[in-house]
Backbone:
């Protein structure tokens, strides 16, 4: 299983599924932050957008994901002020330029992105920009890998470890994977040859019966990770539970803003009432996220659900597995497509 | 989301750096990589350098890639 959505796209784009022997079956994992955002959390982000004097800032992919009753895109069409940003630096800049408004950044992402969001909260504090807030939906990768392995729903022999998450956390947090589950784990870069090299190392570990954590991306991932980034993350966030689409509540897998920084915490600064979440009918994003279904196994795939008119987030996000299968699909990996 | 691209640091001013890749220049934050120096390649993710690329390891990987490429020429 490749954890990271970036790997899924590279694997499909470069035809790696066709290059490797048929005995190597590849599954996508829960590594697309937009996709794993639970509908209830998305509904909260959309509800915040409808509040008066609020500017929502978000990474682009989030805007088109359908919530239970609306989407950020629909809210924008109805007059909500929603702006796509490339970086949290831009979101802080918007807050500085609009002192009469509350600027909320929709904080999604894994350990790669969380330090940049922590840095933005520290920057807002330092520059006394008190109208900047973060809705922290950030998530951690090792706990959800554990949740998947514990469920036993799919039998994994090896995991392609996320390259850029590992730049921050290093290889050690994954050591429970070979130790407790006997599953191989190799951290990969994103070039096609990086991924082939990673698969080669995984197969070698499995054949030898010696699972361990290896780095096949040593130019980016250091054994100690990025200490400075982790320090900032730990300073601003504390670990709590998180709600994952298709998986549910996973303990110790989310990042919440610490009390010391609560004035920047959108969860504390704003209150919205929400109707119970509704999942899109027939959508199998949850199964795809767990690796329990391949995108073409969903009845909506490529028919009702396309990148132009997506039903679920896995077809919206540029890292979603369904979008990758749709964009780069071949008869071999996309039945009937 | 976890997309990060390598960019080269051209100049540094406090915790900001001017970076360049393929002729495109961009100012980025190096608050997460205070060890970055002018001339280093860093991994850029959403406006922040998240890691400094190890040049020796990068060259080693390039050599390995060349080896793989030469294998396909033989067969």
Residues:
């Amino acid at each position: 299983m490749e954890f990271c959505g970036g790997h899924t796209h590279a694997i499909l784009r470069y035809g790696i599924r066709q290059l490797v022997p048929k005995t190597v079956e590849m599954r996508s994992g829960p590594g697309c932050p937009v996709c794993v955002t639970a509908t209830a959390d998305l509904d909260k982000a959309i509800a915040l957008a409808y509040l008066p004097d609020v500017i929502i800032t978000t990474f682009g992919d989030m805007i088109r994901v359908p919530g239970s009753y609306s989407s950020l895109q629909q809210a924008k069409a109805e007059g909500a002020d929603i702006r796509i940003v490339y970086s949290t630096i831009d979101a802080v800049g918007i807050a500085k330029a609009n002192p009469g408004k509350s600027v909320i950044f929709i904080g999604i992402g894994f350990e790669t992105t969380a330090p940049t969001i922590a840095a933005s909260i520290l920057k807002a504090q330092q520059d006394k920009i008190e109208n900047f807030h973060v809705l922290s939906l950030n998530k951690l990768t090792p706990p959800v890998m554990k949740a998947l392995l514990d469920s036993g729903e799919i039998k994994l022999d090896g995991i392609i470890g996320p390259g850029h998450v590992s730049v921050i956390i290093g290889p050690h947090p994954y050591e429970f994977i070979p130790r407790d589950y006997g599953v191989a784990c190799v951290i990969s870069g994103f070039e096609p040859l990086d991924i082939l090299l990673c698969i080669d190392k995984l197969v070698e570990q499995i054949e030898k019966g010696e699972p361990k954590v290896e780095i096949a991306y040593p130019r980016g991932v250091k054994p100690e990770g990025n200490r400075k980034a982790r320090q900032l993350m730990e300073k601003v966030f504390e670990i709590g539970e998180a709600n994952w689409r298709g998986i549910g509540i996973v303990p110790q897998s989310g990042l919440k803003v610490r009390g010391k920084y609560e004035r920047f915490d959108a969860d504390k600064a704003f209150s919205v009432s929400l109707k119970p979440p509704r999942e899109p009918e027939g959508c199998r994003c949850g199964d795809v996220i767990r690796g329990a279904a391949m995108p073409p196994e969903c009845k909506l795939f490529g028919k009702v659900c396309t990148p132009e008119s997506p039903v679920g987030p896995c077809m919206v996000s540029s890292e979603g597995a369904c979008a990758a299968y749709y964009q780069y699909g071949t008869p071999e990996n996309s039945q009937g497509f | 989301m976890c997309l990060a691209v390598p960019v080269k640091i051209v100049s540094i001013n406090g915790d900001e750096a001017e970076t360049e890749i393929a002729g495109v220049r961009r100012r980025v934050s190096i608050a997460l990589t205070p060890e970055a120096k002018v001339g280093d390649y860093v991994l850029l993710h959403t406006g922040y350098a998240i890691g400094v690329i190890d040049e020796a390891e990068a060259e080693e990987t390039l050599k390995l890639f060349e080896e793989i490429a030469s294998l396909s020429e033989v067969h």
In short: Chain A has three domains: 2-30+142-215, 36-139+226-269, 282-328. The longest strand of chain A covers residues 248-257. Chain A has 16 helices and eleven strands.
